Each structure stands twice: as structure tokens, then as C-alpha cells.
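User: Could you go from structure to sequence for me? I need the amino acid at each position, not a summary. C-alpha cells:
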């Protein structure tokens, strides 16, 4: 009973302290549950979330554009070399 008596004296004896403890506990508890649900959702839906798909498409498009640009630079370099 020592633990329960200590909790009562610290948290529940004054109404203002008790209400503050409940509100703060609800706020932080909600944050913990929200983060946990988001992590679980992301874990279960890997590869199915639209932002991941668009990111993959954007990265593949950028890679293709880099290939085209690098080929263009090689061609331009050859034409400049052939002009000299």
C-alpha cells in the first residue's frame, strides 16, 4: 500500500494536480498510440502507399533523364572535337 499511498499524496490529493496529470497523460498517450499505429500501417503497407510509388517513379524518371543528358553531352563533345 505504500506505493498507492504515495501516488495518492503526489497526484490525487489536489484537484489541479490530478487534472493536469490526466490531461498530460492523455496528450502523451495519444501521441504514443498515434505513432505506433502509423508505424504499424507503414509496416503492413510497404510498397502500396502512393507516396512511395510516386517517389519511385520520380527517381526512375530522373535516372532516365540523367542517361539522356549524359548521352547528349557525349555527342556534343564528339561534335566539338570533330569541328576542331
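Assistant: Here is the amino acid at each position, in order:
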Amino acid at each position: 500500500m505504500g506505493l498507492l499511498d504515495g501516488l495518492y499524496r503526489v497526484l490525487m490529493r489536489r484537484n489541479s494536480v490530478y487534472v493536469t496529470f490526466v490531461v498530460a497523460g492523455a496528450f502523451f498517450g495519444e501521441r504514443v498510440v498515434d505513432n505506433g499505429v502509423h508505424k504499424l500501417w507503414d509496416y503492413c503497407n510497404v510498397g502500396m502507399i502512393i507516396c512511395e510509388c510516386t517517389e519511385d517513379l520520380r527517381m526512375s524518371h530522373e535516372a532516365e533523364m540523367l542517361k539522356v543528358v549524359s548521352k547528349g553531352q557525349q555527342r556534343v563533345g564528339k561534335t566539338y572535337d570533330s569541328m576542331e
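One structural detail worth keeping in mind: The helical segments are 2-12, 15-44, 50-83.
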